[in-house]
What we know:
This protein is mostly beta strands. It contains no helices and 11 strands. It has strands spanning about 15-20, 30-35, 40-45, 50-55, 75, 80, 85-90, 95, 105-110, 110-115, 115-120. The strands form 3 sheets. Strands 2-3-4-9 form a 4-stranded antiparallel β-sheet, with no helix packed on it.
Amino acid sequence: MTDDLPSVAVQDASTPLCAVEEVPDGKALAVSALFDGEEASLLLLRRGDEVRAFLNVCPHAGRQLDWAPGEFLFSSAKLVCAAHGATFSVPDGLCVAGPCRGESLREVPVDIRSGAVFLQPS
């Protein structure tokens, strides 16, 4: 599921997912990390200095949002699910159009420290 993504074995809050500048402003970056004890594809969304992380899973169809590993569709500065066109605002992950309107991507808590994105300890 996550073979083509940058992968970090995040087991504690001391290993960064990536540097903030690796997440394109207004866009997304996918990384593979351990979350809740399992390897998961995480989606990082950035707007300016704010970076938020979500499971890379559409709440409508339960499939990954990218059309190819780590490749995402955007329209009018919003993330679009490649399967059914659900549209999500950046960086809050709220579905603003499509089959799951009003729902949100499942957020994964992160911290920004020293210019890097870290999972918050569970």
